[in-house]
């Protein structure tokens, strides 16, 4: 049951902030504990999983599912193209190696053109296989996007905590996040250079291309252009290509994602400092006073700043307020145990 002080809070603060003895921004204790950032980082209790933990587990399970489906996709594709080998044309080496190689080249959208479908059945299956592969790639990218947005949310909370609590080690932690992404960018860039060197070396030694053509083919492959004038023709080269194409194309995509995250963090960091560095005005007070009691509490202040940071809008807040009203059946601007029991029985 919430304390009497908590019952006096507005509906937004009661729903966003854990009940604590701290009732206003001016009555904060000496250690300046931040209930909002604490609740975001640690969850509302030690026993119940926080929403962020739940979403992390859900995302992790989804990524595992995507990995399993991707492995099944490659295995089934390899078996099918192995059976369809007589209906394929182009430069062939070993039926099983060529089937797996064709799957990787198709899924990575490289499309050299050195192996092609030559019958109605094989062409129809290639169309189905290509669209299925693109769907898997899109699903993987969506999960990467979810992870990126989660990182942005965590970064915003850290920035808020840094500016609201000058004595906390938030600045160092925030700088560590930015430096961490820089380090990841550098490591992936070095890895891509190593892949380019290894790919160029194999193309020059195994495929017998001259150095310029080998480098050109490596670049065309990593960027998934795949013009088809140069490609892997030997059995050994194609076995290498199966692993190399996957590693190189995924690494390049990851590098671009880190670059995007780096610039996003830099822009977000600048925006947060501008918003939190601006002094509050009378107009801000009127806009932030959601319950119209001529004062703003911590939750209302945070919502105002999040609006200025373009993280939320009135359209985002409206359904949350409506859900709160569905629980606060006694219209008291608070949610009590009796309200929860009534809403369950309703």
Give the topology.
Elements: H1 4-7, H2 11-16, H3 35-42, H4 51-83, E1 88-90, H5 95-107, E2 115-117, H6 120-164, H7 170-205, H8 211-222, H9 235-277, H10 282-288, H11 298-308, H12 314-327, H13 337-345
Antiparallel strand pairs: 1-2
Helix pairs in contact: 4-5, 4-6, 5-9, 6-7, 6-9, 7-8, 7-9
Structure description:
The model is unreliable at 1-52 and 163-171 (pLDDT under 50). Helix 6 runs parallel beside helix 9 (235-277). The chain has helices at 4-7, 11-16, 35-42, 51-83, 95-107, 120-164, 170-205, 211-222, 235-277, 282-288, 298-308, 314-327, 337-345, and strands at residues 88-90, 115-117. It has a two-stranded antiparallel sheet with strand order 1-2. With 346 residues, it is mainly alpha-helical. It is built from 13 helices and 2 strands.
Give the radius of gyration: 28 Å
Task: Say how many strands there are.
Answer: 2
The proportion of residues forming helix, as a percent range, comes to: 55-70%
DSSP strand content: under 5%
How many helices? The count is: 13
Could you give the order of the helices and strands? HHHHEHEHHHHHHHH
Average pLDDT score: 74
Specify the biggest β-sheet: 2 strands, antiparallel
Assign an overall shape. Answer: elongated
What is the spatial order of strands in the main beta sheet?
1-2
- Cα-to-Cα separation, first versus last residue: 21 Å
């Amino acid at each position: 049951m919430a304390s009497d002080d908590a019952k006096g809070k507005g509906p937004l603060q009661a729903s966003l902030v854990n009940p604590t003895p701290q009732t206003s921004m001016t009555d904060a204790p000496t250690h300046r504990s931040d209930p909002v950032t604490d609740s975001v980082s640690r969850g509302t209790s030690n026993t119940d999983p926080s929403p962020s933990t739940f979403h992390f587990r859900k995302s992790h399970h989804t990524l595992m599912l995507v990995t399993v489906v991707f492995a099944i996709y490659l295995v089934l594709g390899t078996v099918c193209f192995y059976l369809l080998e007589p209906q394929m044309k182009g430069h062939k080496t070993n039926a099983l190696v060529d089937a797996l190689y064709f799957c990787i080249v198709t899924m990575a959208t490289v499309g050299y053109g050195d192996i092609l479908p030559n019958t109605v059945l094989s062409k129809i299956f290639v169309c189905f296989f290509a669209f299925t592969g693109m769907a898997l790639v899109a699903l993987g990218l969506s999960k990467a996007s979810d992870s990126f947005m989660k990182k942005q949310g965590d970064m915003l909370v850290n920035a808020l905590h840094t500016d609201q609590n000058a004595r906390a080690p938030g600045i160092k932690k925030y700088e560590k996040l930015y430096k961490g992404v820089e380090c990841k960018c550098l490591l992936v860039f070095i890895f891509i250079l190593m892949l380019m060197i290894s790919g160029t070396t194999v193309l020059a030694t195994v495929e017998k291309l001259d150095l310029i053509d080998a480098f050109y083919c490596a670049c065309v492959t990593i960027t998934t252009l795949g013009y088809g004038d140069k490609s892997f023709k030997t059995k050994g080269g194609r076995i290498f290509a199966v692993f190399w194409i996957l590693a190189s194309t995924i690494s390049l995509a990851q590098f671009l994602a880190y670059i995007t995250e780096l610039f996003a963090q830099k822009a977000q960091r600048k925006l947060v400092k501008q918003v939190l560095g601006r002094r509050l005005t009378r107009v801000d007070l009127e806009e932030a006073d959601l319950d119209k009691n001529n004062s703003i509490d911590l939750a209302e202040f945070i919502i105002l700043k999040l609006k200025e940071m373009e993280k939320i809008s009135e359209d985002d807040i409206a359904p949350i307020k409506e859900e709160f009203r569905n629980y606060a059946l006694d219209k008291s601007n608070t949610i009590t145990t009796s309200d929860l029991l009534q809403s369950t029985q309703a």
